[in-house]
Amino acid sequence: MGLQKKITLYGMIMVGLILVIICSFSYIYSKKQLTSSINTQMSEIANKESLKIDSWLQLKAQTVENLNFIISNTTQQDIAKEYFTLNKSDKLVSDLYIGFTDGRFIHGEGSAMPADYDPRKRGWYKDALQKNNLGFTKPYIDTTTQKYCITIYSPLKDTQGNLRGVIGQDILLSNLSDAIKNININGQGQSFILDTDGTILAHPDSKLVSKKLSDNKAFTDITKQILTNKTGSLVYTDASVDKTMVYHTIPSTNWILVLSVPNDVIYAPLYSLRNIYLLISLITLIVIFFATFTLAKKFTKPIINLTTHAEKFAAGDFSEQATVSGNDEIATLGNAFNEMGSDLKQIITEVKNTTSHITSTSANMKDNASNTSEVSEQIATTITNMAQDSTHQAEDVQKSANMVTDVTESVNRITTSLQKSSATAATVENSVMVGVNAINNQVNLMQKNYTATQNVYSTIHDLSQKSEKIGKIVEVITDISGQTNLLALNAAIEAARAGESGRGFSVVAEEVRKLAEQSSSSSQEIEKLITEIQANTTAAVTEIKHELNIANDLETAAQTSNTALKQIEESIKIFIAQIQAISKEIAQVNTRTNTISVSISNIASISDNNAAATEELAAAVEQQTASIQTIAQTATQLSDKVIDLENMLNKFKI
């Protein structure tokens, strides 16, 4: 897999992981918020509808209480049957009746009761005696209508509190099922009503009325929880469908109103949001793919260029250099690659030149081999001269050794200076870092000072506004003082007219007048102080605005200094790196200088020995003549090898 494809693949994987994390958190958070919102909405609906049903029951109970109040002071003989005549328009009321303590029974339906009918044995009568207050019976099947109903009962007592009988009203529950059909969430879900023992009182499906909720497998495990908690919410599964249930108690009867909605309906907006997230993620991945592919192509283009030139170098073509642009690591690699190519090109050129020189030299060696015998006679003379030259050479070599020693000492001093410069640069870098931290701290302090100055500005501005309000109040006080003074003057005039009888009132009027004058004088002084405060406040506001501008300028200057120090820090780092590089080069120079010094010392020793060897050279001249022939043969072989080397070098294009 190519580098471009790898960069694109890794970019897609990284962005994909980020999108998965972000979308997952967003989806979970949205689901949590939606669940909370739906639960709240369902709870509000259940509470509202339970209160509505409770109000309806209370309205029916009010009829019983009103009848109790009407006939409470009426004798049993005077209680008319017309009191129990039903309102025919109210289809939910089955019957209205009263059972007396002596077994007598009156009801508004008008039908005859069985001869053995005794109201005192009925459940509603016993419940009323037990509770001794207005109440509701548990639901039951009415023997007359054969319909599901409840009885609202109220004990009837005389003025001494003695029980006279029980008033009852039968309420049919059949219409409750129709009423709760409209209790849902946006037309979705269903509601039903349970009594305190889990019997269904009202349900959109009339076949389930009067049956136990626990008989349904879906509700077997949660019925106890509903009856115990009375109010709450839960999630359950019905016919492989997940649903959310909210239930609330109806206060009058302790019945429980249950609202159930499928989760698919509740989370429909969430599913839409999920699809939107998936679409956004897909679009983002496509955009990121093209962006990453383009960037990867841009990044790999210089590398591909270097690869092409490397292949040319491998084929022996050094005629071109790679195109390099920018200042990044790839550009650095390209420059190093071009330098390597230039070095190789130079080496090959030098080898070619050397080969040409060797070719010429070998030819000359071959020619000179034939002339060597003639020159042998002159060697003796030359050897004498060589002995003298060897002596001078030894002296020159000694001078060179001394000069190399001086160079070595200079290189050592340069190395020491570079080490000190490196340490000084490190110290400067640390100082710059301290300066950067100080500048950052100063910027933070300036920002805090700017915030504090703004707070002072707001406070003084508020003080200025309040001073204006106080000035207006002082004007009102001054007006009141003037009016009071005028009233005091009028009172004094009236007291003077009253004569002796108005003398006391005159004294009071005089005191009021003095008080008014004092109030007026104080108001003027307060007004003067307020004017001064307002002037000072205005001046303070102006100064604080100027201070805010200065604080802004200082913060800008500090940030500029921080930027400059960071640039200095980067320059020092580069300087330190350069010093370290120079130190390495100087160390290498020092090593080579030491090597040269040793070599020169060896040369001096050799020069000393040359003088002695010159005498032996004469004896070797004879052997040289024999060796000349061998040299001629060797020169011929060398010429052949050089030709082969030239053929190999011609493969390189420079």
Automatic annotation (TrEMBL):
Residues 551-623 form a coiled coil. It comes from the Bacteria. It holds the Pfam family MCPsignal. InterPro entries: dCache_1, HAMP_dom, MCPsignal_dom, Sensor-like_sf. The chain crosses the membrane at residues 7-29, 276-296. It is found in: Cell membrane. Residues 297-349 form the HAMP domain. GO terms for biological process: chemotaxis; signal transduction. One of its GO terms (cellular component) is plasma membrane. SUPFAM superfamilies: Methyl-accepting chemotaxis protein (MCP) signaling domain, Sensory domain-like. Signal peptide: none annotated. It is a multi-pass membrane protein. Keywords: Cell membrane, Chemotaxis, Coiled coil, Membrane, Transducer, Transmembrane, Transmembrane helix. Residues 368-625 form the Methyl-accepting transducer domain. Belongs to the methyl-accepting chemotaxis (MCP) protein family. PANTHER family: LYSOZYME-LIKE PROTEIN-RELATED, METHYL-ACCEPTING CHEMOTAXIS PROTEIN MCPB. This is Methyl-accepting chemotaxis protein.
